[in-house]
Amino acid sequence: MAVSRPDHPSLLPALLAAPDPAERVPRSARDWAVDIACFVLAVLFGGFMLFATSHGSSGVHHPPRLPDVLIGALGCLALWWRRRHPVELAVALGVVSLASASVSGAGCIALFTVAVHRPFRTVAAVAVVHLVTGAIYTAVFPDPTESYWVGVVWGVVVSAAVVAWGMFVRARRQLILSLRERALRAEAEQQLRVTQARQQERARIAREMHDVLAHRISLLSVHAGALEFRPDAPPTEIAKAAGVIRASAHQALQDLREVIGVLREDATEDTPERPQPNLGDLPTLIDESRRAGMTVTYENRLHDVDAVPGALGRSAYRTVQEALTNARKHAPKATVSVIVDGSAGTDLTIEVRNPLVNAASGIPGSGTGLIGLAERAMLSGGRLEHGPTPDGEFRVRAWLPWRGETTPAGAPGGAA
């Protein structure tokens, strides 16, 4: 009997049961072949039993031939509905076998169908019906050439063989469907892992683009604003500001090319990552901010900057970069204080403070930079706090775990 392939793992129990009449589907070519084969087997076996019982050597009485043939033919035709009503059909054929030997083939096919599609408790009950009717038939129409118990034993052997065959087919189908279910689940989990990896990579690239470009573009905005509000400035200052704008724009484009390059080609293990900033680059970052007109004080309390692991140094650099960008946006005339402290085995602490002011530079910002910094600190195993202090300042403070690794600060060591 054919079974359609499951479209979803949750369909496995339904496939092992007979289809609901209200949800039956057209028979496939395989279903037609199996049904025809079952009909032919039932006819052949029933004809053999009819021949055997009609040509006994001692002239023993058997069921009348015409009713026997009619019942057997109807039983074979009834196999057409064995998928929809397997239990009912098997019980009915077992009962009518009391008056027909030719229906025994159809009865075996029906019992086999029950063994394939129903649990063992139901199969055992139907098998008992067939054994009882077989024992009664043997008692009513005995064969003088063999003992009564031999006939009963033959009935038990045939029924047991049919049930065992059906249970084997059921177990094999369950195994195949279980393996298919595992394969589908594994494929779905693999697709989920791929999707999550893509999302994480996109989020990493988005953070990188924000950290790099927000700093450069804020510098451009500050210098462009100075030219806008001081059109009467000396030509030397205008040329100097224009040069800074050109250099910042060029650097922003270069940074953008480097970040987008990650999307164009898959990096291999032999492909070195582009140079990443670290704590050693903080003085250059602060000088850029000073040239943009900011007042920045920098206090480095570390004994050896080169001892800071590369990934940790990059996270610290990005934290200072984003904090300076926010200060340039929201407190352009305020003095910003940057303090870096810590030691191996404890935490690397980054603190950026500036007085709260009401003025703003007009540079747009949505606050997503601080959210990204908090996420970066969390992924590193640390934490970040930001907000006003009782002293009337705005403070950004990050604690990043420093486990004492001594990866060179300039060496590649993971995503920034």
From TrEMBL:
Alphabetical UniProt keywords: ATP-binding, Kinase, Membrane, Nucleotide-binding, Phosphoprotein, Transferase, Transmembrane, Transmembrane helix, Two-component regulatory system
Protein known as: histidine kinase
Domain called Signal transduction histidine kinase subgroup 3 dimerisation and phosphoacceptor: residue spans: 201-266
Keyword presence, Phosphoprotein: yes
E.C. code: 2.7.13.3
Cited Pfam families: DUF7134 (PF23539), HisKA_3 (PF07730)
PANTHER family in the cross-refs: NITRATE/NITRITE SENSOR PROTEIN NARX-RELATED, NITRATE_NITRITE SENSOR PROTEIN NARQ
Coiled-coil segments on the chain, per record: none
Signal peptide: none
Gene Ontology terms for molecular function: kinase activity
Keyword Kinase attributed: yes
UniProt domain DUF7134: residue ranges: 29-173
Recorded superkingdom: Bacteria
Catalytic activity line of the entry: ATP + protein L-histidine = ADP + protein N-phospho-L-histidine
Transmembrane annotation, as ranges: 32-53, 65-83, 89-116, 123-142, 148-169
